[in-house]
Amino acid sequence: MIRFEHIGKSYAGVAVVDDLNLHIARGELLVLIGASGSGKSTILKMINRLEPHDVGRILFDGQEIYAFKPRDLRLRMGYAIQSVGLFPHWTVARNIASVPQLLGWPAAKITARVDELLTLLDLPPEQYRQRFPHELSGGQQQRVGVARALAADPDVLLMDEPFGALDPVTRAALQQELKRIHQLSGKTIVLVTHDIDEALLLATRVVLIDQGKVVQVATPLALLTQPANAFVADFVGRSDLGLKWLSLRSAVELARAQPAVPGITLPAQASLREAVSAMALHRVASVNVVDAAGLHAGVLYAADVFAPPGGCA
């Protein structure tokens, strides 16, 4: 869907992006990660022409991005950033409706879309539609920012450190919210972060950038288990590699299909890392797993988590 071909970008003669070649497929959630100054935000902004590239081509749906008028290109791409940037004197509904109004959508369609997105983001429309940004928490403002970016049903959602300024609890909730939105909508999402745990949690593929160059493009699991070089291994974190690996798998994957046992219960989407943490905290060797409807889905045993591949407890 988006293709970078030999892209270069320099500031004052210093290369910030160097011979970038990358294909972003329709429907994937691709995460650009790297240290501050690595060039990841510049790469994101080049997609919607907020930053021009010096050499090479960027294709969007098979067309060079300079074949589009900037306004037309940006209306096809939602954009969410860390600072949110809501209009302070507009209601939540009007903030979300800003792009559909620019596109001339009928009022009834706009109202329906606003309510649909507020519901999707767990902000009941009757409670939040007429509120102003200053009446919202930071996490709620970020949700509205995401809703605004999605309002006109864009082909692509671009996100630049969208959760970086939030507290850990709110950030974790919004990360799960984004995963859910991606699964429900099938949107192509390109997200920038410097947080490796966030990248591993969210991405279908991770692109690790260093000094404007792509170091490795891989799935989260491949990045952990098959790092391209020592830089990747160090960036991912050697000391807690096993814990990160546990974070990529859900409790229900290893749960045994058997009746519930006495003890604690976790949702099926909980990671193996969360399950092991819960077992250690409560000093138990198993947890029950329940599905989204609250129905028993099996029992996860610590012995199964640590059993060798192909082995049994």
Summarize the structure.
The chain is of the alpha/beta class and 313 residues long. 38% of the residues lie in helices and 24% in strands. A hairpin with a 2-residue loop joins strand 1 (2-11) and strand 2 (14-24).
Written description of the protein model:
With 313 residues, this protein is an alpha/beta fold. The chain is built from 14 helices and 13 strands. The strands form three sheets. Strands 6-7-8-3-9-10 form a six-stranded mixed sheet, with helices on both faces. β11, α13 and β12 form a beta-alpha-beta unit. α3 crosses α4 and α3 packs parallel to α6. The longest helix has 18 residues. The N and C termini lie far apart (45 Å). The mean pLDDT is 92.
What's the structural blueprint in terms of helices and strands?
Elements: E1 2-11, E2 14-24, E3 29-33, H1 40-47, E4 55-60, E5 63-64, H2 70-75, E6 77-81, H3 92-102, H4 107-120, H5 125-128, H6 138-150, E7 156-160, H7 168-185, E8 188-193, H8 196-202, E9 205-210, E10 213-218, H9 220-225, H10 230-236, H11 241-247, H12 251-254, E11 265-267, H13 272-282, E12 286-290, E13 296-301, H14 302-305
Parallel strand pairs: 3-8, 3-9, 6-7, 7-8, 11-12
Antiparallel strand pairs: 1-2, 1-4, 4-5, 9-10, 12-13
Helix pairs in contact: 3-4, 3-6
Order of helical and strand elements: EEEHEEHEHHHHEHEHEEHHHHEHEEH
- Overall mean pLDDT: 92
DSSP, total strands: 13
Write down the Rg.
22 Å
Helix coverage percent of residues? Answer: 25-40%
Low-confidence stretches: none
Task: Describe the strand arrangement of the main beta sheet, using strand numbers.
Answer: 6-7-8-3-9-10
Query: Main sheet, how many strands, which sense, barrel?
Result: 6 strands, mixed
Outline type? globular
* Contiguous helical run count: 14
Structural class: alpha/beta
For the termini, the CA-CA separation is: 45 Å
Strand content: 15-25%
